[in-house]
Amino acid sequence: MLAVAFPAAAFGTNCYVLAAGPGEECLVVDPGIGVEETLRAVLEEHRLRPAAVLLTHGHLDHVYSVTPVCGGTTAAYVHADDRYRLTDPLASMDPGTVAMLEAQFGQRATWREPETVVEVADRARLELAGLGLEVLHAPGHTEGSAMFALDVVPDGLPAEEGLDRTVVSGDVLFAGSIGRTDLAGGDTAAMQRSLRDVVLPLPDSTLVLTGHGPATTMRRERATNPYLRGLTA
């Protein structure tokens, strides 16, 4: 699997491009703020064509560029419980934060829903762009936070020996941390259940591509992440 990762222009949100190989269709995961130019260059370099956009959740910093990336032909996939957030994610943001972004980028923030949105459910199996994925619903950061699991490890990212699968974790799990639960729709108890029932059962051989910050592995997080200590799968 080919994988390319790069940060958005705001909030350090990781955008991922996943494909079976160069010259193929691809998946774009979490196209955040200001990713369009870099994404265009990545697609041209590897001769890729977006087949779908995957959204780990509906926060603005993960979905802001979804509509221009989708155009009028590519579908956006999101868990059903976060579908409502695609109506207007700007409305849920602090006005001061929106004003800061507008000042940074020199233009007014606008939003338009993607034309085609596919709602996915927990444990759904997806076959997209020649890749097989499983949806893992993991609420807590938002109601519809989801991770996407693949039974393959990418060639284009640094990885440890012995890894045989990949999870795109969004803002559920970070290297050494987890997603915050104090925003609208967040739920600390739900996050604890997701960590216990969804994250901990992942094998140590799992590469974790996080929503912010560096990639990690389940082996490393199980041993060092303070938020996983004391939990039993």
Automatic annotation (TrEMBL):
Q: Which UniProt keywords apply?
A: Hydrolase, Metal-binding, Zinc
Instruction: Locate the coiled-coil region(s) and give their ranges.
Output: none
Q: Which segments constitute the Metallo-beta-lactamase domain?
A: 12-212
| Family annotation (CDD domains) | metallo-hydrolase-like_MBL-fold
- SUPFAM superfamilies according to UniProt: Metallo-hydrolase/oxidoreductase (SSF56281)
InterPro entries per UniProt: MBL_Glyoxalase_II, Metallo-B-lactamas, RibonucZ/Hydroxyglut_hydro
| Domain of life, source organism | Bacteria
| The protein's required cofactors | Zn(2+)
PANTHER family from the UniProt entry: HYDROXYACYLGLUTATHIONE HYDROLASE GLOC
Q: What is this protein called?
A: MBL fold metallo-hydrolase
Please report the organism this UniProt entry assigns to the protein: Phycicoccus sonneratiae
